[in-house]
């Protein structure tokens, strides 16, 4: 996990540089938004509740508008967007969401997160940071892209049937007696029967990592709604080189 140390040092250095010199902001375009998973850095200046990976994706449909969707602290959300004023403002219109209930502190941030989607925001890119601020400056959202990758292959005996879905997760497994926290996730759908190995290239956001924490990679295979393969051993994440993750048949 040597690279994790370098990531942490780079983030610290980056924060120091940012404190000393402002990063020039630029307008956004559909091309600069699409093809990335944007991970929440802050809502109204506060970071996400620990363990919550809050993401947003843009799907352009024209040169100025499209759809957006993602996962909030508790529920999935979705809606449309329109860019205006040469990419310096964005209008979300009506944003819908599912209606699951979560623990109180998560629901508190859920309400704050959804309230931040006021109809019109000023929007800009500060380097890789996506910044959205309401016109009256009372609401703000900042996101960073999943800009790094962890790579490897999944090894297993037998053959995975056509139509199977493999889900690979990068998890923070530092805390004892607490469920692992998902940092990143990749879903791989198989159109045909597939033999070992299967490669994965999972994107993640470096700002979600903490230097002193332990990170592992877990995978499972679902076919016709049933778990047919999964990892049964602890696989420490290797950020330096491709890793091998073994799957066992259930």
From TrEMBL:
Signal sequence segment: 1-18
PROSITE patterns, alphabetized: PROKAR_LIPOPROTEIN
Keywords associated with the record: Signal
Keyword Signal: yes
InterPro entries for the chain: DUF306_Meta_HslJ, HslJ-like_sf, Hsp_HslJ-like, Pilotin
Occurrences of domain DUF306 (ranges): 31-143
Organism domain of life: Bacteria
Pfam families according to UniProt: META, YscW
Matching PANTHER family: HEAT SHOCK PROTEIN HSLJ
Protein name per the record: Heat-inducible protein
Organism expressing this protein natively: Parendozoicomonas haliclonae
């Amino acid at each position: 996990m040597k690279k994790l140390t370098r990531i942490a040092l780079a983030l610290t250095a980056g924060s120091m540089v940012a404190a000393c010199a402002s990063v020039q902001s630029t307008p956004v375009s559909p091309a600069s938004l699409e093809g990335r998973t944007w991970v929440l850095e802050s809502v109204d200046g506060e970071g996400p509740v620990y363990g919550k990976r809050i993401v947003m994706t843009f799907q352009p449909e024209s040169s100025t508008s499209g759809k957006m969707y993602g996962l909030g602290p508790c529920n999935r959300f979705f809606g449309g967007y329109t860019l205006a004023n040469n990419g310096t403002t964005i209008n979300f219109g009506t944003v819908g969401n599912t209606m699951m209930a979560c623990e109180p502190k998560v629901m508190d941030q859920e309400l704050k997160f959804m309230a931040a989607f006021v109809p019109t925001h000023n929007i800009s890119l500060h380097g890789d940071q996506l910044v959205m601020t309401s016109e009256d400056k009372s609401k703000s959202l900042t996101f960073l892209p999943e800009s790094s990758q962890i790579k490897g292959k999944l090894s297993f005996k037998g053959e995975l049937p056509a139509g199977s879905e493999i889900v690979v997760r990068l998890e923070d497994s530092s805390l004892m007696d607490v469920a692992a926290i998902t940092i990143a996730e990749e879903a791989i759908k198989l159109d045909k029967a597939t033999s070992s190995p299967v490669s994965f290239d999972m994107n993640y956001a470096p700002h979600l990592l903490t230097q002193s924490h332990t990170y592992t990679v877990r995978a499972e295979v679902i076919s016709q709604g049933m778990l047919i393969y999964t990892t049964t051993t602890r696989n420490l994440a290797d950020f330096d080189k491709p890793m091998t993750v073994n799957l066992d048949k259930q």
